[in-house]
Amino acid sequence: MTTTATDFIHRFVPGTTAGAAPLLLLHGTGGDETDLLPLGQMIAPGAALLSPRGKVLEHGMPRFFRRLAEGVFDHEDVVRRAHELADFVAAAGERHGLGKPVAVGFSNGANIAAAMLQLRPDALAGAVLIRAMVPLPVAPASDLAGKPVLILSGAMDPIIPEANAAELARQLSAAGAAVTHEVLPAGHQLTQCDITLARDFLAGR
After folding, report:
1. How many angstroms separate the CA atoms of 75 and 166, rounded?
2. Measured between alpha carbons, how far is 148 from 129 in angstroms, rounded to an integer?
3. Is residue 1 part of a domain?
């Protein structure tokens, strides 16, 4: 697969800190390429930021893949879009001189990041998955040996059952990822605790 770095509307912020891993910022439903830039700057000051806008529209709201209902995904589209995004990341990395990024995704963005980890593990250096759920009905065989992954779930999340997030953690761990799964006293929304844990996780890489 070949694409160009302009296939996704996106924002790129060059890094100012030598050695800081670049971040791939992936917004939730209804977000855009600007949504997570402040989060990226808070959790990894000085890191290069690559933030694409999802191409799928649901009632005018950008997403990274189609869904049939809340929590029910179009799995064929998940696979296609994960490969498409991984190709974009590779092309953008060449264009901007970036190493492999750590994906930081929220909700729909976390789900496409999880799919990328499983389908294209070499595209990412790791991931912070905020309010993620299992993206595919059967986990693809993938080698995530030692890849650091932080999953941040909400104990009171009305969208994602706790068992689903736990299954995602199990799948990624079984593939060899170094998974940390934290269940926070929160719903589906982003909280200060998410920011603190993500910052500490990235600083400790």
Report:
1. 20
2. 11
3. no
R_g (Cα) of the chain, nearest Å: 15
Does the pLDDT of residue 3 top 50, yes or no?
A: no
* Mean predicted lDDT score pLDDT of the chain: 94
- pTM higher than 0.90, yes or no? yes
Q: Over 56-119, what HEC string results?
A: EEECCEEECCCEEECCEECHHHHHHHHHHHHHHHHHHHHHHCCCCCEEEEECHHHHHHHHHHHH
Instruction: Find all residues with CB under 8 Å of 6, minimum gap 6, and list them.
Output: none
Tokens read off for 80: 């296609």
For the segment 24-47, the average pLDDT, to the nearest whole number, is 97
Tokens of 152: 């941040």
CATH code of the domain containing 106: 3.40.50.1820
- Indicate the pairing of strand 23-26 with strand 49-52: parallel
pLDDT tens by residue, 87-122: 999 999 999 999 999 999 999 999 999 999 999 999
177-186 b/e (C-beta count within 10 Å ≥ 16 → b):
bebebebbeb
Total domains present in the chain: 1
Q: Which of 87, 93, 167 is nearest to 129 (CA)?
A: 167
The domain of 127 spans 10-203
Could you give the residue numbers annotated as active site? 107, 157, 188
Q: What would the pLDDT profile of 133-149 be if each residue is shown by its tens digit?
A: 999 999 999 999 999 99
Q: Which amino acid is at 184?
A: L
